[in-house]
């Protein structure tokens, strides 16, 4: 086994390698966490909004304030018609407090919501085995009231999922660029270390050391520094994610959902220091082997 202390890691440009790896791991962990959080949120949006529609019933025009009986009667008629429609698994009118809670992130929690003529909403769950014909349902509801509208979430959900998937691909591209930049830095640092210890390498050559043995000296050196920098970057990332999770807790709602990472996702981020060490070690070994082929 090669002795890594023959090539000290505290000399030359290579001494900055752990800090460079720490920065790279930090950015890689942030990009990975963002991609995993988007993937989780996309799954939550798909589960929550799939096979659901919302029926919107505007309040009757000219209805005196404080007289909700005509509106409630129309809501009851629409709810009964929905429950009798084939393909509708559940139809539940939302309470005024629930509607106000949905609008609170945009309108605030003051008395403005109570002064607005809010529409009546019915949450409709469609059957997965026998989806309802929304065109026929719209015509049926139009006979009850021409101003009654069906809000199908699928178009909006499709656009949201496509945006989320595009952002996830961008995160993967960022990870690829970070890996490329890390390899470039390791190559530069290894070449600098190789040049700084050229006399030791030449002496080992004269003593009959093989190229693989010399490459392993730099491999262990790079792996140790990569592992050190990886754990530093992971520690900083953990602190940053903890701070972001505390800030994101106030944004938890029906639109944003819960962006907290699952334990499995956190474990996948924990392997980044080992991946960084492996990448630096492999790159250093290949660089040294190439440099050794150029020696006389």
In short:
With 296 residues, this protein is of the alpha+beta class.
How are the elements arranged and paired?
Elements: H1 17-49, E1 52-57, H2 69-83, E2 88-93, H3 96-107, H4 112-115, E3 120-126, H5 134-144, E4 149-152, H6 153-196, H7 198-206, H8 211-248, H9 263-270, H10 272-293
Antiparallel strand pairs: 1-3, 1-4, 2-3
Helix pairs in contact: 1-6, 1-8, 2-5, 6-10, 8-10
Strand order of the largest sheet: 2-3-1-4
DSSP strand count: 4
Query: What distance separates the N and C termini?
Result: 25 Å
Give the helix/strand class.
Answer: alpha+beta
Question: Which whole number gives the mean pLDDT?
Answer: 79
Q: Which geometry do the CA atoms define?
A: rod-shaped
Total helical segments: 10
SSE arrangement, N to C: HEHEHHEHEHHHHH
Uncertain residue ranges: none
- How much helical structure, as a percent, in the residues? 55-70%
How would you describe what is shown here?
The protein has 296 residues and is an alpha+beta fold. The protein folds into two domains: 4-47 and 164-293, no CATH class; 59-147, no CATH class. It contains ten helices and four strands. The protein has helices spanning 17-49, 69-83, 96-107, 112-115, 134-144, 153-196, 198-206, 211-248, 263-270, 272-293; strands at 52-57, 88-93, 120-126, 149-152. A four-stranded antiparallel beta sheet has the order 2-3-1-4. The longest helix is centred in the middle third of the chain and has 44 residues, at 153-196. It is rod-shaped. The chain starts with 16 loop residues before the first helix and ends with a helix. The relative contact order is 0.19. The mean pLDDT is 79.
